[in-house]
Amino acid sequence: MQVPGGWRVLAVATAMTAGVALAGSSGPATAAPAAGTATAVLPQPDGWHGTSGGSVIEYRTTTWDGSAVEASGALFLPPGPAPAGGWPIAAYDHGTSGMAANCGGITTPGPGATRQDEFLRHLLSQGFAVVAPDYLGLGRFDTGPHPYLELRTEASATIDLVRAARESHPELSRTWMVFGGSQGGQAALGTAHLQQTTAPDLDFRGVVAFDPESDVEKLVTAARPGLPDVPLLSGNTTGLIAMMLAGLRSSHPELGLDSYLTPRGRDLVDAVGGLCLPAVGARATGMALGDLFARPLDDDRIRAAVASYMAVPTSGYSAPVLLLLNSGDVVVPSPLHALLCAELTAGGVSFRVVPGTGGHTEWNPQMRAALDEFLAAVRSS
Question: Does the keyword field hold Signal (predicted)?
Answer without folding.
Answer: yes
